[in-house]
Amino acid sequence: MSKLPAHLPQTVDGASAHIYTVTTPSADDLKLMVFLEAAGQGFYGAFAEAAPNDEIRAIFNKNGQEEVGHAHRVSRALKLLFNEDFDVPEPADNPYYAWPKDVVLSKDMISGIAQQELAGDALYDLWATNLGHEEASRLLRRNGKEEKGHGERMQRAAGML
Ligand SMILES: [Fe+2]
Ligand SMILES: [Fe+2]
Fold this sequence. Notes:
mainly alpha; Ferritin; binds fe (ii) ion
């Protein structure tokens, strides 16, 4: 069963639209982010399945793995900031999780995701600055750095398509 609080957006589009408006995350925002990050693995898994070669597939798989790590770091930040225990959900318990079956990879689509990843870096950096909590902000900045890496890898992948 989903532990995503019922008053938070229940779709991945709703969650994505909300999260980019947040400048200083509340406990709810961090819970939403745990779910959103954990869902990243499904999307990247589907992209990997549709990848035209091993090099591009490896890029998607690496990004997907790291998204799960991001979910764990956000959960740790939530504990540090709000003293709440909140597990990273399994795919079956995550309403944001999807494994799209009809993925058609294009340069434009991958470039678009690269831009979202880079925006993720900016968002984490903003949160880290505004929260000003030594350890939690360090965790969020580490996520941000990896999002930047995701963006750069995706730009590389787009160049290979
Ligand atoms: Fe992430
Ligand atoms: Fe990412």
